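Summary for the steering committee. One of the milestones for this cycle was to obtain a three-dimensional model of the protein with coenzyme A bound, which we needed before selecting residues for the alanine scan. The sequence and ligand used are listed below.
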Amino acid sequence: MSNLQDHHMEDAYELWTQTGWNDGYRVSLADFMKSWQASAVKKCIVQDGQVVAIGRANSDGILYSMIHDIVVHRDHRGKGLGRSIVLEVVQELKAMKVRSIQLMAAKGQAAFYERLGFEIRPNDAPGMQYTWKSAQQGAAPDAQTGDGDL
Ligand SMILES: CC(C)(COP(=O)(O)OP(=O)(O)OC[C@H]1O[C@@H](n2cnc3c(N)ncnc32)[C@H](O)[C@@H]1OP(=O)(O)O)[C@@H](O)C(=O)NCCC(=O)NCCS
């Protein structure tokens, strides 16, 4: 397990893009790098010189944190790498004593996170997200569709 550094970014970008999440966001490698550099926790697993798993968390360092971009390369799934990445990110957030650790599970992945200590918020307090396309006013970046939910 390593802290994800600048020289890992190209591999990480490719891995992340393969999930399809960038179909909506359409961010360049340069912007992907900037967004990761701004994250409080950024982890990766490198095997044979290739980044095979990534994960990160954004946080204010005190109250809130949100885990994003947990991805394991297709050829390396089912070997415990996803678990390791999530637990390492959580461990670092706990060491920072951040009070709230949240995430939005992708479709079909909630059970993966439940095994790792997360629980689904009740239906009367669900997560919500702002979507540019449903907003009544406000300027939206051209590339932002609001389709991405991670
Ligand atoms: C979700 C993902 C990160 C899991 O990574 P992985 O390395 O294959 O998972 P692990 O091998 O660490 O699995 C840990 C445990 O969770 C289980 N698990 C994995 N995916 C699961 C799923 N979708 N539903 C239920 N359980 C799951 C595993 O069977 C394993 O169980 P065990 O504790 O009995 O051994 C990986 O499938 C992936 O990258 N998916 C595409 C991107 C994605 O959707 N990421 C999540 C975004 S919210």
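Key point for the committee: The pocket of coenzyme A is lined by residues 19, 70-72, 77-83, 105-106, 108-109, 111-112, 115, 150 (CB under 6 Å).
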